[in-house]
Design a protein that fits this description.
By secondary structure, the chain is mostly helical. The chain contains 33 helices and 2 strands. Strands 1-2 form a two-stranded parallel ribbon. It is an enzyme of class 2 (transferase).
């Protein structure tokens, strides 16, 4: 409902009486709610404070889960990547035109990551987390105004100030939103910034659309400029995350239901019956068709531009990402999609079992009507149909409006994640419920108002609501703490999704990164058991077994991985390393080249290929392979080092020196390169320069016994015997088992003894 309260006219027209009655009707929603009615500024302060308390403890969390790919490994965050590339790359930094791209186009979100990276001077998660927390607080404050419009209607005073006719209801709905635990992934997980930014501009678009009717009387006048600004903000929301485009549909729904006060069922019936009285509806008298044309043309333009940028190819997902979408039977697909909807609804209603990933067996497919889980589908659709019937058929216009908008905000933003229009890359993703939870909180608040009206035990009801809010706050604090580190996040999922192979894989990977290989092996084995086609688990398990010299089992696992996924370049490379260790050099070389064929820019594979050629004394081929590695990755220290050492060992000191100097220009603080070049300079009798490099290397890594030992050799050759003795002793103290150093030290001591005897004579 939209109206202007003008006290100069209400006494001389029927319009004033109508407005008073309508305003009184809206107040009734708050009338029976046993909560305090706060001033707008205090209400927003309370909501903002609660939203901050819930997630504040995530401020000093690490980069976790998808943050690694979207932020740490995303070259679009670095200054050397042109800003223009952001408009042609997906969320993960890959080209949108690539067959492997997920087609997630969110350039504005990536731009904020880039700004974070620049301001922090690197990958420091603190700033990233603080921005996410602040964004949620801002959204929670804004949503007080949104709920006041959705629940209480759109009215302005004669001074042009928007009236909040339902301060209690809007406060309760905003609190329910601010402290909902399902939001934790969006806030504590940095990649959730996409959902936060999208929601921010989504809400601004809605509020600006409402602002277009500030000077309107019954919707007859409106500002086209504000409508166009609303469309622009909708486009901005879409550039943060794809869901943003759905605000255009919700603005259209709001226009019809609130601005034009249409009875949707009545309009549909008149259209079906081709009733001539349709022309008399307000739809033609209040500019609705013109506004719908603006919204539709804006949405079509957004989709067209997006289509041109990303190309016509669909996103590349695998069966493990979304198994239901790969089912052969339409029945199985439909049943499981609806089951996923029921699980999302349950997570909104009872956000207790939360998991960072719901794929890979976490939600087994329903393949038969005898599966008891079908009951949840029936419950979901029974509730939805009941709400829809009330939204369409109720004689109470306020109920129709609130239920229609509540269902609209619940369902429409969820449509891009529903698998109805295109396949998505997940089974359930808690983050996609950030926007739909607006509709959920609205419906729950309306239900609470109806319950308050019916019950006499209002204190008990208030206690229950406060209990729910406090439990949600506690759950948010616990859950955001789990998101602070990968170890806690992954382990928290074991009890929720014990059948999820990816959960076991991630726990194993986290343990392996910390050096606990024995425990990691058991989790990797469980991941492979749960999903016998899980090639990434096979690859990582094979790697650990290779390091433990269990080469035959490692070869079996890696061979199976490349058999299942022939283009898995990393597995081919690791298979080559195992075959090289087994001295099956020809097979190893073939595996390396297969890996390079599937991933042309693969510096690590060229490095390992060079090691193979070095073992075979194919020195020119080894140098070429290592040179390729450094061309593809100029910071590849190991490849540079091996080139220097090989040239040194083959007597090509001048060339070794040139390569060493080139390497240090690119990686000036690498102590291993300083050490290798110092050895070359020492053999070339450039003692002063060699000494300086040895000291720089020792300063960077003072506990390296070989650095002290080789500096001692340099002093030994140079004739600085006392310094040689000093560094031999330091080296042997650091590594008493170094036979070469001990032998050189013995030679030096004999020489010193001889010199002492001569002096005595």
């Amino acid at each position: 409902m939209v109206a202007i309260c003008n006290h100069h006219n209400v006494g001389t027209s029927n319009l004033g009486q109508v407005l008073r009655k309508m305003a009184q009707a809206e107040v009734n929603l708050d009338h029976d709610i046993p909560l305090l009615a706060l001033q707008p500024c205090w209400a927003k302060t309370v909501v903002g404070l609660f939203s901050f308390i819930c997630f504040a403890n995530s401020y000093n969390g690490d980069f976790v889960f998808d943050d690694s790919e979207a932020i740490i490994n995303n070259k679009d965050l670095r200054a050397e990547t042109p800003l223009d590339d952001l408009w042609y790359h997906d969320f993960w930094g890959s080209k949108l035109s690539s067959n492997t791209s997920h087609k997630s186009y969110r350039p504005l979100t990536v731009l904020t990551f880039r700004i974070n990276y620049h301001l922090a001077g690197g990958f420091h998660p603190l700033g990233f987390h603080v921005i996410n927390i602040l964004l949620h607080c801002i959204i929670s404050v804004l949503i007080v105004d949104v709920f006041s419009i959705l629940l209480g209607g759109l009215q302005y005073s004669n001074k042009g100030r928007r009236l909040n006719l339902v301060p209690k209801s809007s406060l309760l709905a905003a609190l329910l939103f601010a402290v909902h635990p399902i939001h934790t992934e969006c806030i504590a997980g940095i990649v959730g910034r996409a959902d936060l930014l999208c929601t921010l501009f989504f809400l601004l678009s809605f509020l600006v659309y409402c602002r277009a009717f500030k000077e309107s009387k019954e919707g007859t006048n409106f500002s086209t400029a504000w409508i166009l600004l609303s469309v622009l903000l909708g486009a901005t929301a879409m550039l943060c995350k794809e869901q943003g485009i759905t605000i255009l549909g919700l603005n259209a729904l709001f226009d019809g239901v609130v601005i034009n006060k249409l009875n949707i069922l009545e309009v549909v019936l008149k259209i079906v019956r081709k009733d001539k009285s349709l022309e008399s509806l307000v739809v033609f008298r209040k500019g609705l068709l013109f506004r719908m044309a603006l919204l539709l043309s804006g949405g079509a333009t957004m989709l067209y531009v997006r289509w041109r940028i990303m190309g016509t190819g669909p996103p590349a997902f695998t069966e493990v990402d979304n198994p239901a979408s790969f089912a052969d039977s339409i029945f199985v697909r439909a049943i499981n999609y609806n089951y996923y909807y029921s699980l999302n609804a349950w997570l909104l209603l009872c956000p207790w079992w939360l998991c960072f990933d719901w794929s890979m067996g976490c939600v087994p497919l329903i393949k038969s009507v005898s599966d008891w889980r079908i009951i949840t589908l029936a419950i979901l659709w029974f509730c939805l149909i009941a709400l829809m019937c009330q939204a369409l058929c109720s004689e109470d216009s306020r109920k129709r409006r609130i239920l229609t908008l509540g269902l609209g905000f619940l369902i429409i933003p969820f449509l891009p994640a529903s698998n109805l229009f295109f396949r998505v890359g997940f089974v359930i993703a808690e983050r996609v419920n950030y926007l739909p939870s607006i509709g959920y909180c609205m419906l729950i608040t309306y239900g609470f108002s109806l319950l308050s009206k019916q019950t006499k035990k209002k204190k008990l009801l208030v206690a229950a609501v406060l209990g729910v809010l406090l439990i949600n706050v506690w759950r948010c604090i616990i859950r955001s703490n789990q998101w602070r580190s990968e170890e806690h996040l992954f382990r928290s999922a074991l009890s929720v999704c014990p059948l999820n192979a990816k959960v076991h894989y991630n726990v194993g990977k986290n343990l392996a990164d910390k050096g606990n290989q024995t425990a990691a092996i058991s989790y990797y084995r469980e991941a492979v058991r749960l999903n016998p086609k899980y090639v990434h688990a096979m690859n990582n398990l094979g790697n650990i077994l290779k390091e433990r010299n269990e080469l035959h089992e490692a070869e079996e696992l890696l061979s199976l991985a490349v058999q299942i996924q022939p283009d898995f370049a990393a597995a081919w490379m690791n298979l080559g390393i195992v075959q090289n260790s087994l001295r099956r050099y020809q097979e190893a070389e073939q595996s390396y080249w297969t890996a390079i064929r599937h991933r042309r820019k693969y510096p690590d594979c060229y490095y390992n290929l060079g090691r193979l050629y070095a073992d075979l004394n194919r020195h020119v081929d080894a140098l070429n392979a290592w040179r390729n590695a450094t061309v593809l990755k100029p910071q590849h220290s190991l490849a540079w080092n091996n080139m220097i050492i090989l040239l040194d060992n083959t007597g090509n000191l001048a060339q070794a020196e040139a390569v060493g100097r080139e390497a240090l220009e690119l990686i000036p603080n690498d102590h291993s390169l300083m050490f290798s070049l110092a050895n070359v300079l020492g053999k070339s009798q450039k003692y002063k320069e060699s000494e300086a490099l040895f000291h720089k290397a020792i300063k960077a890594n003072p506990t390296a016994a070989s650095y002290h030992g080789n500096l001692a050799v340099l002093y030994h050759r140079w004739g600085n015997l006392d310094l040689a003795k000093k560094h031999y002793e330091i080296s042997l103290k650091l590594d008493p088992t170094a036979a070469g150093t001990r032998e050189n030290y013995s030679l030096l001591k004999r020489k010193l003894d001889q010199l002492q005897k001569k002096d005595d004579v």
